[in-house]
Specification:
Blueprint lengths: L11 H18 L5 H12 L8 H11 L7 H28 L4 H27 L16
Length: 147
């Protein structure tokens, strides 16, 4: 192997000089940001309230502010809170529907589906009768005559 391509061994003085130069470089160019500043920035971006956020934004906000990537405990709490809020909203909607005695959209859709299914079965029966109107119905029986 050619000596030109071999790495040169550094002396202790050269290693110490490199370390010192690197530390000076880091002092000049490295920006130190504390996580608290980042969290304050996120809170400023989203604000303290959740009034104008959709569900995806709420999740992202909670995930970042609670540092959800570090552990599953916070996310379990969040998912539990979301489930409780959804359950409360459903109960409130059901109570409001009962109080107003009007049909909800889901109930109307269910009625329409039942009517549609009944109408479809009627049309299928008619089509089967129409298609097989010229066939002899005795095909199910085997005629036999005594000798």
């Amino acid at each position: 192997i050619n000596a030109e391509y071999m790495g040169k061994e550094k002396t202790e003085e050269e290693v110490e000089a490199d370390i010192q130069d690197y530390s000076e470089f880091l002092k000049k160019h490295k920006k130190v940001t504390a996580p608290i500043e980042d969290m304050e920035l996120l809170k400023e971006f989203w604000g303290e309230g959740e009034q104008n956020l959709d569900n995806n934004e709420k999740f992202l906000r909670f995930y970042l502010l609670s540092q959800g990537w570090k552990g599953k405990g916070n996310m379990k709490k969040y998912m539990k809170d979301v489930a409780e809020k959804k359950e409360k909203a459903e109960k409130a909607a059901a109570a409001a529907a009962k109080a107003s005695k009007t049909e909800t959209v889901d109930e109307v859709e269910k009625k329409i589906d039942v009517e549609d299914e009944a109408r479809d079965s009627e049309m299928d029966d008619y089509e089967a009768k129409f298609n097989f109107r010229f066939e002899d119905g005795t095909g199910k029986f085997i005629p036999s005559h005594s000798r």
